[in-house]
Amino acid sequence: MNRETEKAYKSILQYELVPAFGCTEPGAVAYAAAKARSILGEFPEHIDIMCSGNVIKNVKGVVVPNSGGMHGIEAAAVLGSMLECGGDELEVLSSADEEDIRRTKELLGTGFCKCGLEEGEGNMYIRVLAVKGEDEAEVRIKGQHTNIIYVRKNNEVLSSVEDSRQSNDISKLKSLLNVKDIVEFADTTDYSEIKNLLDDQINFNMQVAFEGINNDYGASVGKTLLDNNGTGIKVRAKAMAAAASDARMGGCSLPVMINSCSGNQGITVSVPVVEYAKELKVSEDKLYRALMLSNLIAVHIKNHIGVLSAFCGAVSAGCASGAAITYLHGGTYEQICSTIINTLGNLSGVVCDGAKSSCAAKIASSVDAAILAHDMTMAGRCFSYGEGLVIDDIEKTIANIGIVGKEGMRETDVKILNLMLEDENRKN
């Protein structure tokens, strides 16, 4: 394949496959708060945090990791403000200790932290202001969970960029993604320089999956599947992925390797693929190549939809894992396209109503749809041109899904957020 394309795809994987501690949105809030405290140089008297609606949606119902079971933006921000921020970014909460948790619980509800909705910004936006006496520090994150675009201490702006150069460069590289080249990349590339990332994805995400299977987190979707449906590969693929999300959404203090800025998507593109690789007894080399394909297809589809949307990311990630399962079975480019189309033609309407325990069930449903799509493909069956959003070209079909997720579901996203905020206000 073209050397520049190969280099671009490796760069995308290096950018996308990073560890995160718990759900990424609370992690991003904590990171911003920790960064603001570090810029301030001392523990603040109070902090103010403003977030876009999608950040609020994804923090509201999920357990903040390493917090002793606390939920919500205020908990994530206050706990983050306890910490000095180094280079740990989305793993910043891993350094919180019992004293930090105790102090956080004491400060919640005291007015130390005020949270609000930031209007007029994109789906991923966080602004934190930390104040101590006459000193203050401000940090803003936009576009990506760790993309700091603005840092200020008092009247001095330390850095200010609308979008980071890295983010712009990656966007250009992602524009090169297409299914045909992704398959060729998976087939032919020397992956030695990214093997460590794939190893971490396997080890981290499977460890979280076993944590979820062996313990009670959230609604225990993974355990429920195994307890009631046997241990065949189709059940295990769904159950282990769901169990990983059970643990992660339930506050498990273990890192995961993310995909498309999401731990749940990182789990979904990897855990079912690992389970199928074990079942089929394929070589380690084949597993690595299947994971590269799964990760890149997920990024490709998600790139059309956007980072945060009303379109559930488990669907695009599940679609990618289904494509990788077909790849593990020796599937051709055409068959991989068929699996993608069959998955998207089935579950393209699943909405995201925030990060929470039911994400595990949506992951299970998405993987189930992906396995059905694979089975249909291997039987020579595929949804046809003109059936809904399916077009006679794989890239046009993916683009259609992206338009629906990014543009068509914009009002749906607003309505979901408003309903969640109305309920929160009613309780308060």
Keywords:
428 residues; alpha+beta; 60s Ribosomal Protein L30, Chain: A; 2-methylcitrate dehydratase PrpD; 2 domains; 6-stranded mixed β-sheet; two-stranded antiparallel ribbon; 17 helices; 58% helix; globular; UPF0597 protein H8692_00910; Ser_deHydtase-like_asu
| Tally of helical segments | 17
Bulk shape:
globular
- The helix-and-strand class reads alpha+beta
Q: What is the end-to-end distance? A: 58 Å
The overall pLDDT average reads 90
Structure description:
With 428 residues, the chain is an alpha+beta fold. The chain has two domains: 22-166, 60s Ribosomal Protein L30, Chain: A; 176-417, 2-methylcitrate dehydratase PrpD, CATH 1.10.4100. It has helices spanning 3-16, 24-40, 53-60, 72-81, 98-107, 165-174, 179-188, 195-214, 221-229, 233-249, 263-280, 284-305, 313-328, 333-347, 359-378, 394-408, 410-427; strands at 19-21, 46-51, 113-117, 125-132, 135-142, 148-153, 156-160, 255-257. The strands form two sheets. It has a six-stranded mixed sheet. Strands 1-8 form a two-stranded antiparallel sheet. A hairpin with a 5-residue loop joins strand 5 and strand 6. It is globular and about 70 Å long.
Short characterization:
This protein is α+β, with helices and mostly antiparallel strands. It has helices spanning 3-16, 24-40, 53-60, 72-81, 98-107, 165-174, 179-188, 195-214, 221-229, 233-249, 263-280, 284-305, 313-328, 333-347, 359-378, 394-408, 410-427, and strands at 19-21, 46-51, 113-117, 125-132, 135-142, 148-153, 156-160, 255-257.
